[in-house]
Amino acid sequence: MDTQPETALRPDPIDEAAGRLSEPSQALDPKSLVMRFGADAPLRTDAGVELAPFQIAYQTAGTLNAAGTNAVLICHALTGDQYFAHTHPLTGKPGWWETLVGPGKPVDTDRYFVVCSNVIGSCMGSTGPASIDPATGRPYGLNFPLVTIRDMVRAQAMLLERLGVRDLFLCIGGSMGGMQVLQWAALYPGRVFAAMPIATGPRHSAQNIAFHEVGRQAIMADPAWADGRYLEEGTRPSKGLGVARMGAHITYLSEPALHRKFGRRFQGGSAPTFSFNADFQIESYLRHQGLSFVERFDANAYLYLTRAMDYFDLAEDHDGVLAKAFQGIKTRFCVISFTSDWLFPTSESRVIVHALNAAAAPVAFVEVETDKGHDAFLLDEPAMFSAARGFIDAAARARGL
Amino acid sequence: MLFKGSPGNAAPWQTTDALPRTAEGNGARVDHIVVLGLVPPGARVLDIGCGDGSLLALLRDRRSIDGRGIELSRDGVNACLARGLSVIQGDADTDLENYPDDAFDVVVLSQTIQATRNPRIVLEHLLRIGRQVIISFPNFGHWRVRSELALRGRMPVTEIMPDAWWETPNIHHCTIRDFVGLCRLIGARIEHATALDASGRPMRFSMPWWVWNLFGAQGVFLLRRGAD
């Protein structure tokens, strides 16, 4: 969320990015740990496909204790990755959740064995549309099967099994990561001791599906997308993906935060240029967001992962009754929402809380007061940290850690 | 020692040694000690307006209850989280309708009903959600309240109602007799009732309602649905 005005001064950064053709090196050969699953261990997806072979890229921190009781799974969001506490190989930025995770932090890597894997369908080393289809020797593109949140969770469970983790002390994540947390609890109720779904919902709302569709159409309208075969054609739909990111990024913020950071202020002056240059700081900021995104993310992966979120409806999987997803569950939950989040508003978290109450599950709920919108879960939010610390420490005591 | 339970006052599951004495009373609020005496061991308990969770923690430690809470303030919820309690940030006026029938053995509403927008609906929800309801509230019929109003002509400010009229969250004050009237109106059965005097001491059970209504600073009721 940095404004980075020096970059934002460029007149049309997305045009500039369109010329670059960085290979999807991280998709094929990531700078992280990789677990490979052969033909004997296919991922059986909701779409009815047996995906094999496939690989899951992941990172860890901390050490699994002898009893195997201190494992934490971090579930990343839509465009996130496994580098939660590690320098990003493409951007060089620090881990995306170092505010919450690390030595002495609420998710204390001195006490817990923390795992985060790139979701299936993404582009940071786990198998996805930018990976090579063994049947053709060419990138999957749109031949990659549609994956769901549940498929992501199944793949994570297969990874954890290989790592010797029988069950989780804590499963935590925000946004799409929060969907995975809910799915974990519903799919493997006996294997999650504590769960923290943050800034998320039990289903993707019609409005959110609508925003995703705009992003997908922007990508598909870019001629360089080439019906999804851009890796073979040697092009990149950078304009489309950049516009998709610009639109999505607005939904991660809030009007008060935009007003506070940018207002109607002009970029590099005090008067309009009477052109379609990025006169306003907010325009420069969004263009910068679009530019930096296309350098690190694959357009097809963006299509697949937004689709996975759209399909998510936990109640639908349980006869339309969300409480049934959590029937008899022993997992202790801490649900967190943010007052200014209009993508996953507090009302969505309350639906989760009410369902957990109806299922008699132990649930705590905190609504954090902030003007930073949906992205608040990634930012320095002391109220979220204190709630997380209280919940996790108490859960650790109950677990005997 | 503030609590002196008389045997005739004891709930069915109580034994005299379970009655709260000094050891249990140390550091705990008087009305919490009274609630402690009314909650059976191992019960599923919902505490509405649970504040920092001190009652839930007391009940968990002394009665091994399975407790849940609802609290309006984030600071309160955070304090509960740190105690390992399952408490949601919410509002008695809006959140109770989402709880299923008979979800809890005991529902506790402590010093809160007078601050709700619709006490009757709240009380009906409590009786629906819990097999038993423990409810305490400041008695607006207390002689000091009456004298403030009758003699000084001012809205009363007392220890248990410390806020001035323009800043008090208490928008639906009632007397003990008023509350009994509401219980009759909605068909709630009063299984047990106690009035605490200004020092928090339970008043003698044998006293007639009008004495409670005049000298009780707060009422503590154990209710049950009438239809059962």
From TrEMBL, chain A:
It catalyses: L-homoserine + acetyl-CoA = O-acetyl-L-homoserine + CoA. Keywords: Acyltransferase, Amino-acid biosynthesis, Cytoplasm, Methionine biosynthesis, Transferase. Substrate binds at R245, D375. One of its GO terms (molecular function) is homoserine O-acetyltransferase activity. Its main location: cytoplasm. It is an enzyme of class 2 (transferase). Homodimer. Belongs to the AB hydrolase superfamily. MetX family. This is Homoserine O-acetyltransferase. It comes from Methylobacterium pseudosasicola. The lineage of its organism: Bacteria, Pseudomonadati, Pseudomonadota, Alphaproteobacteria, Hyphomicrobiales. The gene is metXA.
Automatic annotation (TrEMBL), chain B:
It holds the Pfam family MetW. CDD domains: AdoMet_MTases. It comes from the Bacteria. InterPro entries: Methionine_synth_MetW (IPR010743), SAM-dependent_MTases_sf (IPR029063). This is Methionine biosynthesis protein MetW. It comes from Methylobacterium pseudosasicola. The lineage of its organism: Bacteria, Pseudomonadati, Pseudomonadota, Alphaproteobacteria, Hyphomicrobiales.
